Amino acid sequence: MQGLEVFDNAGNTVLSLTDRIGRVLGSVRTNGWPGSIRDAGFTTGTPFFIVQTTNTGGFSPTDVQIAGDMLTWNYPTPNQLWPTLDALIFYGVY
Amino acid sequence: MPAGFQVTGEHGVLQIDQDYSNLALSASGSVTVGTTNNTMYADVTITGDTPVMVIKAQDIFVGIYSMVQTGNQFTYRFVTRSIPGYGLGFQWFAFDKARISGENCGLQVFKEDGSIAYDSGCRPIKITQVIPNIPVGPGSSDPALAFLVGTVPQGNYGFILSQTYSNFMGSPGGAGFAQVGCARVTPNSVFRTITSYPGELRATRYNGSINMLMVDLTGIA
């Protein structure tokens, strides 16, 4: 067995040896443009991302992917009717 | 990490690492929407640093239309889609970088800069799995046609939608509506649909996919 077990005052398990708990690595603003960042932390667990858009009409980022230590995001081709949206991408591992 | 503190679980994956902050429960609440079958919304503002919003919705479909940050204030606009005969409430749980719990016993791990990485007095976020590439469209104006994504082991689940896909249909500044991916999760099944906001339900046209992070809320909700 390995890991850490944590119990609350009532004896309930808060953390067990088999729990996968999330760690936050950071966040990045897209400003409506495609882009990428590198973070070595992606390789320390199973990576995840969460895209939060603003409420201005338009396209959210799409094709968000994490491969190795790189997070990339793209947008559909913008046009006059549907511009691209700024978004905040949270990322981490579990 | 040449020196410091790490905990690796039975699965061989790091649980705690002094180089990174764990996500811990920072706020929670519940919302009950009206009885209409149309899309409803509710705004929730929290204070945070890097918050992650988890939704627990078993009866009603819930998604996030927008998140607006002003300093350390984060305002989420939830949108919902009810099903006739089902409940109208849902719960939300915000997880953020670990904080000092104030407990007098337990374990605290600090980062090199002196900020807290882990505090055993805080409830950590427990991610059980990521369901990838869930299609969000084209949708239907009939929630009964919502898509069964699949089954999951019996549990007490919340979920995080990796992307809101609140794509705007119409001209900026003019009449239009957004398409928002929504979901509900029963103790053993995951459903998704798409809704339109603002306004009445409309047939939707968007094709895309999202990931869903499943969160174990045992001991929390």
Structural commentary:
Chain A has about 90 residues and is mainly β. Chain A has strands at about 5, 15, 25-30, 35-40, 45-55, 60-65, 70-75, 85-94. In chain A, the strands form three sheets. In chain A, strands 3-8-5 form a three-stranded antiparallel beta sheet, with no helix packed on it. In chain A, strands 4-7-6 form a three-stranded antiparallel beta sheet, with no helix packed on it. In chain A, strands 1-2 form a two-stranded antiparallel sheet. Chain A is elongated and about 60 Å long. Chain B has about 220 residues and is an all-beta fold. Chain B is about 0% helix and about 55% strand. Chain B has strands spanning about 5-10, 15, 20-30, 40-45, 50-55, 60-70, 75-80, 90-95, 110, 115-120, 125-135, 145-150, 155-160, 165-170, 175-185, 190-195, 210-215. Chain B has a four-stranded antiparallel beta sheet with strand order 12-16-15-14, with no helix packed on it. Chain B has a three-stranded antiparallel beta sheet with strand order 3-8-5, with no helix packed on it. In chain B, β15 and β16 form a beta hairpin. The two termini of chain B are about 35 Å apart. Chains A and B meet through β2, β3, β5 and β8 of A and β2, β3, β6, β8 and β11 of B. β3 (about 25-30) of chain A pairs antiparallel with β3 (about 20-30) of chain B.
